[in-house]
Amino acid sequence: MSLLAAVSITTALTAVQEPVTFTRDIAPILFEHCVACHREGGVGPFSLETYAGARERAGLMAAKTRARTMPPWLPDPGTEPFVGERRLPEEAIETLRRWADGGAPEGDPAALPPAPRFAAGWQLGEPDLVVTMSESYVVPESGRDVFRSFVVPVPTERDRFVRAMEFRPGNHEVVHHAVVLVDAARSARYLDALDPEPGWAGMQAGLAESPDGHFLGWTPGKTSLEVPEGLTWRLPRGSDLVLQLHLLPRPDATPVQVQVGFHFGEAPSRTSTRLRLGTKAMDIPAGEANYRIRDAYRLPVDVELVGLYPHAHYLGKEMRAWAKLEDGRRRPLLHIPDWDFNWQAEYRFARPVSLPAGARLLMEFGYDNSADNPQNPHDPPRRVLYGPESSDEMGDLWVQLVPKREEDLAALKLDFARKETAARLTGYRFKLDRNPEDEKALFSLAGMLAALGERDEAIRHLEKAVRVRPDFALALSDLGRLHFLNGDVERAVEFFDRAIAASPALPQAHHNLGTVRLAQRNAEGAEAHFRRALEEWPDFAEAHYGLGEALEARGESEDALRRYRRAASAKPDFALAHFRLGNLLARTDDSDTAVHHYEAAIAAAPEFVPAHFNRAAVLARQGKTDQAATALERLLQLEPDHREARDLLSRIDVRTPRRR
């Protein structure tokens, strides 16, 4: 053996045997991967910024990283990387093990790298707007986890477009995770008013929803990110946020008062949407260790996948999502081998995943309802059905995507709506097969059937719901509404009266009864009920509209105008409100504004023939004959036998021949 070879072997052996130290080997790992959470003021329960803090937990770090429960990152490595992956390399895991086994020595203090610095305030700098819960909420000291929702008004005087949202939980030891929804109609304020404490129990959200296909939420350790380029989302003027919080009881818990910061940008150049794969037809037997659900959706247009948000509760074990191309090729998208409800998150692709029309999105989730599942909330295990509470179970995979051609968005939404409607119908019927007297499932199924035009079947389900629960005010109110649509006014009034007797403050029942009184030409009685509805729900768009109709019927045009404006403000796509505004403004010779509202009505309801005709008539009166004639021709495509439109068009052509 040459002398050079002997020296090389000796050097290598020395390097292998050299002890791992904190300053040289461990601090760089912790500073890069851990102290964003585990620092003073961070969301982690202890700090790893110093040698003393790390040495105390050397064995814990080695065990947690070897088990891959820390850093908290659930997906396996895949072909499609995600933004912000928190995954330790194998060599780093091995280094932490060797350090703990070797007694966790400090090493040369001079070798310690500079500690990372974190912004004292917001991660992305000072937000353009900060909103805060108006009241703090005191979490119980003990007991079951708390699921509670809160309304936070957003004081914006015009629509804004959000490029980033930051969530500050205030008390990160108590706030387990949060979902953030936008309530443009301010409908959830009514739910808040019914509960004497701040917020309300559960995850009801009124008409609040995730905006423009985005996922808004917070989990411990989540980094605030700007949305992908061109995908800002609209925050409508005067909206509310609905914060759905999962809260953990603590003996020394301080009150929770969440802050949300918004960073604004330009209007989006592209529009994303969300699709949900999964099923509500879940019935997991007690002791079942390998329960599976599956779902699939065939894409009707070319798309780019932006991100995924999987969701299950404590029984979830494994999750897979993939795409299957028409040529049979399989493209993996997500694999979570060991789901943990405590670390659910959104996963945004580092590069959008391009899929052609005809590709299928598929998902499969596995569940363990056995006694061997340490996360099982039931001891002993019991049968578990689909439901919103954490002791129930869910199986959803939300997919955020963007059609490659903007003009394909409507077709994509319509196609998926058909699938989602069928899935929801199946889910509610599945629940009723298991429990025919589930009044909530009866009510929800009736609502869907009514929307699909199956009014008699909806009435049958609602009648059963109120037999099960005679004081079910919402079901009574809906029964009245459906009987009214069927022309049975007497029965409708009977059910509205019963709804109000069961819940005197129910705004929907007062609104519905106001609608009946209006149809009976009792404007004064209608006004009283609409005003009562608005006392309980000040931003109830339909009640403002109904009150406007009642006031207009009494000749109070100015007050009616104000009410229609409130209705259109609370619900910008309220076609009838815009139509009535246009009519009143046209009478006051404010023709330009009238045309604007007719156009808003048509944008909300493209086949709204009266709005098309009235817009054309106002344009003709203004002398804008070419525009008026074009509007009439469009109307006649919708309704070829519209006599007034043909007459007006002929008069325009006779009086002012148009250029051809």
Structure report:
With 660 residues, this protein is α+β, with helices and mostly antiparallel strands. The protein has four domains: 13-111, no CATH class; 129-265, Copper type II, ascorbate-dependent monooxygenase, N-terminal domain (Jelly Rolls, Sandwich); 275-416, Jelly Rolls (Sandwich), CATH 2.60.120; 433-655, Serine Threonine Protein Phosphatase 5, Tetratricopeptide repeat (Alpha Horseshoe). The protein has helices at 3-17, 22-33, 51-56, 58-66, 90-101, 189-194, 409-434, 439-451, 455-468, 473-485, 489-502, 507-519, 523-536, 541-553, 557-570, 575-587, 591-604, 609-621, 625-638, 643-655, and strands at 129-132, 146-153, 160-168, 175-183, 200-201, 217-218, 233-235, 240-247, 259-265, 273-278, 283-284, 291-298, 303-312, 316-324, 330-336, 347-355, 360-367, 384-385, 395-403. The protein has a five-stranded antiparallel β-sheet with strand order 5-2-8-4-6. The chain has a four-stranded antiparallel β-sheet with strand order 1-9-3-7, with no helix packed on it. Strands 10-19-13-16 form a four-stranded antiparallel β-sheet. Strand 14 (316-324) and strand 15 (330-336) form a beta hairpin. Helix 10 (473-485) packs parallel to helix 12. It is globular. The termini are far apart. Residues 1-15 have low confidence and may be disordered.
Fraction in helix: 25-40%
Shape: globular
State the fourth-level CATH superfamily of the largest domain. Tetratricopeptide repeat domain
CATH architecture of the largest domain: Alpha Horseshoe
Low-confidence stretches: 1-15
Profile the largest sheet: 5 strands, antiparallel
Q: How many distinct helices?
A: 20
| First-last Cα distance | 98 Å
- Strand tally: 19
- Secondary-structure content class: alpha+beta
| Multimerization status | single chain
Name of the CATH class of the largest domain: Mainly Alpha
Measured on Cα atoms, how large is the radius of gyration? Answer: 30 Å
Overall tally of structural domains: 4
